[in-house]
Design brief:
By secondary structure, the protein is an alpha+beta fold. It has 18 helices and 19 strands. It has 4 domains: 152 residues, Ubiquitin-like (UB roll) (Roll); 63 residues, DNA polymerase, domain 1 (Orthogonal Bundle); 112 residues, 2-Layer Sandwich (Uridine Diphospho-n-acetylenolpyruvylglucosamine Reductase, domain 3), CATH 3.30.465.10; 115 residues, CO dehydrogenase flavoprotein, C-terminal domain (Enolase-like, domain 1, 2-Layer Sandwich), CATH 3.30.390. It has a 5-stranded mixed β-sheet. It has a 5-stranded antiparallel β-sheet with strand order 9-10-15-11-12, covered by helices on one side. Helix 2 packs across helix 5, helix 16 crosses helix 17 and helix 17 packs across helix 18. It is globular, with a radius of gyration of 23 Å. The N and C termini lie far apart (53 Å). The structure holds flavin-adenine dinucleotide and FE2/S2 (inorganic) cluster (FES) (2 copies). One FE2/S2 (inorganic) cluster (FES) binds next to loops.
Length: 474
């Protein structure tokens, strides 16, 4: 039995397959076809819906891609779709603004844009720019200028709440709904709420897939057409959703979503926070997690080189015990990790940078927003008395795994800017890596870019004024 609210109405559904997506639930089971399927891979935003969750005595809403979210994740939540906004024949102000601004031609993307703008306005338009809120919504025919005009109109208005909003009954009912899908044992979808019930679930279902935000695993279902008969959802396990600012470190639960992590990174690792704002789109950042990024072990996982450069420590949780591991020991081969059967990543500890230590992160992709890296460079080093020391250089997109480049680091170690021989750095990069050529970039381009990113980090550190002049136009 899956229990949730849909546009203010309580819903109880039996026979929900564990890998049924929220989009399939809407279109095929609820016959609500306003929500569209474009890409079925989280890229176009046509399927955007808004999900509310009781948090600290109020309902917090976030925009997500329904095509790659599993229906079980709705348990105890409020799902809002485009059908829930208008008041009878009267359009919601977000819809009206798009009409007034001529922001819809064929209309295929429009419902997704409406939902993204609705959530953007609801959460305060100062948190994100309209452009950031819409980076995950593709419009192929109208063009973005009229859509952004509509957003400008909305930014001047207070958010209009649909009739269902603020219903104390709904909030109380949602809060009272069990965390897990009931009965969990037979539904194929379990959502434990603490480590004890997580361990029990993992023991009962050793063959289950764990899922956090499903922004990667969801594509196994919709693109690779695999069936996922047993899922253990980590998103509500309290210990995995915790963030601790400790003495000398930030420790992040593996199931903390990027949008929640971002303010902490802004305080302690601003370059990491800046990178996160380019990871996927708002819809992806509202669900994606560090644990999921590590779980994919993708050679182009954006956060992974940063974790390597910062010398992050992982805490891995097995059915009976925990163990620690530096992230540099975690990646064993192409999408192969040191996780043993039944083990997951529980926490990621990021040591704070010492005062003289510098961290630089650069993502190179074809598109600024919502695009996968061609190359990502993450570097950390101490800069003392004009020399680079304790240099850690990590790259994504250069090898089968995200990887440290100790031989290249040795070319900077103990040297001043003038003493760095860039032809040796380039030779060392070429000897360390044989990157692939694919649609994103050729091998030669990746090698050249990797060297240039390093050169940029050096210039930015030693000659910040020159760097501002050169790179602010880049
Ligand atoms: C449109 C789109 C854009 C994207 N853009 C980017 C991008 O710019 N940069 C980038 O790096 N990624 C990107 N991604 C990929 C994805 O969003 C990230 O990898 C994200 O961090 C995955 O987190 P998740 O919680 O959604 O993982 P899930 O999909 O839930 O899980 C991914 C894998 O990790 C495993 N897993 C999950 N949690 C754990 C855990 N705690 N321990 C062990 N294994 C675990 C799962 O079993 C699964 O195999 C994008 C994806 C989409 C669909
Ligand atoms: S259908 Fe394209 S993001 Fe979901
Ligand atoms: S209105 Fe046609 S794709 Fe946006």
């Amino acid at each position: 039995m899956l229990e949730f609210y849909l546009n203010g109405t309580p819903i109880r559904m039996d026979d929900v397959e564990p890998d049924l997506t929220v989009l399939e639930l809407l279109r095929e089971r609820q016959h609500l076809c306003g929500t569209k399927e474009g890409c079925a891979s989280g890229d176009c935003g046509a399927c955007t819906v808004v999900v509310g969750e009781v948090d600290g005595g109020s309902l917090k809403y976030r925009a997500i891609n329904s095509c790659i979210a599993f229906a079980g994740s709705l348990q105890g939540r409020h799902l809002v779709t485009v059908e829930g906004l208008a008041d009878g024949e009267t359009l919601h102000p977000v819809q009206q603004a798009l009409v007034d601004g001529h922001g819809s031609q064929c209309g295929f993307c429009t419902q997704g844009i409406v939902m993204s703008l609705f959530c953007w306005q609801l959460n305060g338009t100062d948190r994100l720019s309209a452009q950031e809120a819409l980076a995950g919504n593709l419009c192929r025919c109208t063009g973005y200028r009229p859509i952004l005009d509509a957003a400008t109109m909305l930014a001047r208005q207070a958010p209009a709440l649909p009739a269902w909003s603020g219903s104390p009954d709904m909030m109380a009912c949602l809060a009272a709904m069990p965390n897990d899908v009931i009965p969990a044992e037979t539904s194929g979808y379990r959502r434990p709420e603490d480590l004890t019930s997580l361990r029990a679930a993992m023991k009962d279902w050793p063959d289950a897939h764990v899922v956090a935000g499903a922004t990667d695993l969801g594509l196994e279902r919709t693109q690779a057409l695999k069936r996922l008969p047993k899922l253990i959802d980590l998103s509500r396990v309290a210990e995995l959703a915790a963030i601790e600012e400790g003495d000398g470190y930030l420790e992040v639960g593996a199931a903390v979503v990027y949008s929640r992590l971002q303010p902490y990174l802004k305080t302690h690792f601003p370059v990491f926070a800046a990178l996160l704002s380019r990871l996927g789109s708002e819809q992806i950042r509202q669900r994606g997690t560090l644990g999921g990024n590590l779980g994919t072990a993708s050679p182009i996982g954006d956060t992974l080189p940063v974790l390597l450069a910062l010398d992050a420590q992982l805490c891995l949780l097995g059915p009976d015990a925990e163990r620690g591991m530096p992230v540099s020991d975690f990646f064993l081969g192409y999408r192969k990790t040191a996780l043993q059967a039944g083990e997951i990543v529980a926490r990621i500890r990021l040591p704070f940078l010492a005062p003289q230590r510098v961290c630089k992160v650069y993502k190179v992709s074809k598109r600024w927003e919502d695009d996968i890296s061609a190359v990502l460079g993450a570097f950390s080093f101490s800069f003392e008395a004009g020399c680079f020391r304790d240099v850690r250089l990590a790259f994504g997109g250069m090898a089968a795994t995200p990887v440290l480049a100790p031989a290249v680091a040795a070319e900077l170690e103990g040297r001043s800017q003038d003493a760095i021989d860039w032809s040796r750095v380039e030779a060392s990069l070429a000897a360390s890596f044989q990157p692939m050529s694919d649609v994103r970039a050729s091998a030669g381009y990746r090698l050249k870019v990797a060297a240039n990113l390093l050169r940029r980090a050096v210039v930015e550190t030693v000659q910040p004024d020159t760097a501002t002049r050169i790179f602010d136009h880049a």
